[in-house]
Amino acid sequence: MELAEKLEILADSAKYDVACTSSGVDRGGRHGSLGSCVAPGICHAFTPDGRCVSLLKVLYSNACSYDCSYCVNRRSNDIRRATFDPRELAELTIGFYRRNYIEGLFLSSAVVATPDLTMEKMIEALRILREKYHFRGYIHAKAIPGADPLLVRRLGYLADRMSVNIELPSADSLQRLAPDKKKSAVLAPMGQIAAESKQNRRELQLYRSAQPFAPAGQSTQMIVGASPETDRHIMGLTEALYKKYSLKRVFYSAYLPVVEDSRLPALTTRPPLLREHRLYQADWLLRYYHFSAGELLSEEEPNFNPYLDPKCCWAIRNPAFFPVEVNTAAKEDLLRVPGIGPKSALRIIQARRMQHLGMAELKRIGVVLKRAQYFITCNGYLGAHGTRAEIANALLDPKAFGVGVQQLSFDDCMPKALPDAAPELHRLTAEGMDVLQAAALLKQEAVTCITRQM
Amino acid sequence: MHYQADVADVVYRYDGTMQGFLCCVFESFRRRELPCGICSPEEGRLTLFPEREIATDPARARRVLTGIERLGGGVRQRFMTAFLSTDPEKEQILLRYLRLAFATGRGVDRMLGDPDVAAAWQLERAVNGEAHHFLEFIRFEERDGMLGAVIHPQNMVLPLLRPHFCSRLPDEAFLIYDATHGIAMLRRGNEVRYLEMEDYDRETSPEEQQWQMLWKRFFRALTIEPRRNERCQRTHCPRRFWRDMCEMQGGCLEVPGQSRKALEEPRNA
Questions:
Q1: Looking at residues A118-136, what average pLDDT do you find?
Q2: Which of A30, A292, A315, B37 could bridge across to B11 with cysteines, CB 3.0–4.6 Å?
Q3: What is the C-alpha to C-alpha distance for residues B29 and B67, in angstroms, rounded to an integer?
Q4: A-B interface: how many C-beta pairs under 8 angstroms?
Q5: A110 and A232 share a domain?
């Protein structure tokens, strides 16, 4: 098989893996080798679906011996199969890397025969890349659940970031949809990687020649929308994963129906993109805003509001916390204000050492005053007075009512609901309502509803 | 502001270099005045105010630069980066910023609430942001073992690209051609030189075409059709960068089936 065709097949099979970050390691270049890493990561291209391409994301092979019902590569699916040769994969990576197309390699694989055999092949490809081509760029490798711990260990010394996908948010769903995978088989390598990283950090401090083990930590991903779990369950799981396994990232992937199966949502189901977006927003709140999962959702309200982002939702439920005085408040308190993020909070703290901050100053600093003005005081004066309806209007997330022209062909210029708009908007337009009218109606309803909550 | 009263009806004209600009700062302090405009020779702005030619004196420039360095790394960094901007107002903004900086002292770079500091910060942000886009979107092509790339930046970003690519490609010779300003950065061995260049021919050898074809096919294969969101794509990768990115040639509007056919045609020919 020709290389280009192989690349196409294996990239196509890997594209449903969401993680494509190259962050977490700072490693300068060195003579005699090729490449460097920067801690924030670099994206190199953006596909028409708006996702970034940072790494050469491919499967080593897509000839899978498992039969997970949600997966395109499952054994019973009739698709083209291909497998890389370690050397050709390494050459491809180097060629792309030199041309600045990519930051490095993301290597995953379907289970070829057994997990151990698959891992050995992957390790061989990475070893060639690191040792023969002296590649110092980023490598993200996926540990295959059920592989020997020794192999996981060897992979960790070659890769920068490792990940094990927990695939579905609960053991029941996993049992139902991916009968070949066991919860314990997924969590075992995760625990091993966490333990080895911890030990390795100590070694790195003690010995100069110690090799770093997965210096960019580990991540995982789960599919959202294929099984009945609530957002509250998912956030709880996420928080536990961050705490217990010190993960760097948890990725969510909106379920795209690729297969007909009675256990799965119908093929015509839209991917829950807005829900995925809300989960990522909440994930950010956990990692950068000192929120805990319990604060965001409760038993009475187990799912995120599609029209409000989780932070605004929290602000509406906790009016007693506000207003926050920008000139004296602690960083943690500033971070709770809708419209102030980690960057502007830091800038506020730096700037207020030199000068008093008023509304004009905050605007220059980059605070989103549209939302923040109702929740802050500057030198004791409230940022703005607004009626409940005005505040609700300012807080609404415009993404939920997204209407635009997406040209799929040249004679197609009608405005449509964007793919990541609220599901209700899609339902109304599907029933034949004009999309702009539907968006206006929905917005009206959302404002009324939020005003009542305040 | 306290210095607003000092605005004088005069326009400074300097040679466009950083040294020249530092001499303008010197002049502004020496005469205790704030000119109502500073022009470089490239912009032939017509003004009603009398012009004053500011001679470039390296000794004066060094004095001002030493002063800036005394204000801390942040102030120096912001000045150096913002000066790479091609904003027509940049000299005025930077002069106001430096005057405030000399009046306030260290820590002025963190006073982002101040209008003068904020204006200089915005310039710095724009330049850094554009430079970062080029770290992402530069596409090298190989010719006789050497890498070459063309960019069309708005600001003079080449000096900001230098450390990144020198570290990333430690043993490679490469050239980045800034087509907007007609300057190329050439790195060979351990030496980096800036050259004036007029023209750059794109590489058309079959091997290079083969690599680009591989990349394009990979790029197309990655797209998930049900998630198509071109607005999001344009937010992250604005249209003006597309002309130098091989995978964006031909646009992304085509329906996937057609685009694949279009890709395969030149291969069969």
A1: 94
A2: B37
A3: 12
A4: 180
A5: yes
> What is the pLDDT at residue B258?
41
Tell me which of A66 and B163 has the higher pLDDT.
Answer: B163
Q: Which of A352, A378, A395 is the last residue of a domain?
A: A395
pTM metric for this prediction = 0.90
Q: B23 with B103, same domain? A: yes
Within A319-434, residue ranges assigned H as helices are 331-334, 342-351, 359-365, 369-372, 388-395, 423-430
Chain B residue nearest residue A3, CA to CA: B214
In a domain, A303, yes or no: no
Using CA atoms, how far apart are residues A59 and A121, in angstroms rounded to an integer? 12
- Interface ipTM: 0.89
pLDDT in tens, B110-133: 899 999 999 999 999 999 999 999
Q: Which residues in A lie closer than 8 A to residue B247 (C-beta atoms)?
A: 45
Strands in A258-378 per DSSP E: 324-325, 376-378
Question: pLDDT tens for residues A39-57?
Answer: 999 999 999 988 999 999 9
Residue B100 touches partner A, C-beta closer than 8 Å:
no
Q: Are residues B115 and B161 in the same domain?
A: no
Shared domain for B89 and B16, answered yes or no, is: yes
* Both structure tokens of B231: 């607005």
Share of chain A above pLDDT 70, in %: 98
- The beta-carbon neighbor of B229 closest among A28, A52, A420 is A420
Mean pLDDT in residue range B81-109:
93
For residue B183, give the CATH number of its domain.
3.40.1620
B8, B111: one domain: yes
Out of B136, B231, B247, name the one closest to residue A42 (CB).
Answer: B136
The whole domain housing B53 covers: 4-130
Instruction: Give domain status of residue A174, yes or no.
Output: yes
Q: Which of residues 208-247 of B touch A (CB under 8 A)?
A: 211, 213-215, 217-233, 235-237, 245, 247
Q: Return the structure tokens found at A380.
A: 């004791």
Indicate yes or no: CB of B226 within 8 angstroms of CB of A354. no
Structural domains of chain B, count: 3
Question: Which one of B114, B149, B255 has the shortest CB-CB distance to A409?
Answer: B255
> How much of chain A, in percent, has pLDDT values that exceed 90?
67
pLDDT of residue B256: 42
Least confident among A37-46, A127-136, A172-181, B41-50:
B41-50
Same domain membership, residue B143 and residue B122: no
Radius of gyration of chain B (CA): 23
Asked if A361 and A410 sit in the same domain, the reply is no
Which two structure tokens, joined as six digits, stand for A149?
Answer: 């711990």
Higher local confidence (pLDDT), A104 or A17 = A104
d(CA B67, CA B70): 5
DSSP A180-193: T--HHHHHHHHHHH
* Sequence letter at residue B253: L
Q: A336 lies in which domain range? A: 310-395
Q: How many domains does chain A have?
A: 3
Task: Give yes or no for residue A60 having a pLDDT over 60.
Answer: yes
Q: Are residues A444 and A365 in the same domain?
A: no
Q: Which residues of A touch B217 (CB under 8 A)?
A: 4, 7-8
Q: Is A154 helix (H, G, I), strand (E, B) or coil?
A: helix
